[in-house]
């Protein structure tokens, strides 16, 4: 991974890294946090969405790290569709608010990004993440989030 998506504001700059090819993206997922090789099925699952993109979608920008321990592979595994495509640049300048964050830039087609990243039901459901701390270290694979309908 080379280069940080420069249109993000500084406190988010370390989150999106440029991947010039599918091979670059796969390489980011191919090593576990402990340095061991990642299971090829996990690599394939994490990169399946991006593997189906047309060649002119590259380079793209994808999450570079989940936290200091996670590295890029874990973030890409958790959010495989949350990438910024070449055609979505440059971002619209800041001035937008999202929760506690101010002055955020937006992709030119924010709705298209939301639907791609979160699915066609993005405005009718939300996902509840399993409690990571309750599982403890070495508890095995993280269970998937639970899809929950939004209430009126």
Summarize the structure.
The protein has 152 residues and is α+β, with helices and mostly antiparallel strands.
Tell me what the structure shows:
The chain is of the alpha+beta class and 152 residues long. It has helices at residues 22-29, 40-51, 71-78, 110-118, 132-135; strands spanning 16-19, 60-63, 83-85, 92-98, 101-106, 125-128, 146-149. It contains 5 helices and 7 strands, in the order E-H-H-E-H-E-E-E-H-E-H-E. The strands form 3 sheets. A 3-stranded antiparallel sheet has the order 1-2-3. The protein has a two-stranded antiparallel ribbon with strand order 4-5. A hairpin with a 2-residue loop joins strand 4 and strand 5. Helix 2 (40-51) packs across helix 3 (71-78). The protein is globular, with a radius of gyration of 16 Å. The model is unreliable at 1-14 (pLDDT under 50).
Order of the strands making up the biggest sheet: 1-2-3
Question: Structural class, judged by helices and strands?
Answer: alpha+beta
Principal-axes shape call: globular
Q: What's the N-to-C terminus distance?
A: 42 Å
- Integer-rounded radius of gyration: 16 Å
| Major sheet size, sense and barrel closure | 3 strands, antiparallel
Q: Roughly what fraction of the amino acids lie in strands?
A: 15-25%
What's the order of the H and E elements?
Answer: EHHEHEEEHEHE
**Average predicted confidence as pLDDT:** 75
How much helical structure, as a percent, in the residues?
Answer: 25-40%
Unreliable spans: 1-14
How many helical elements?
5
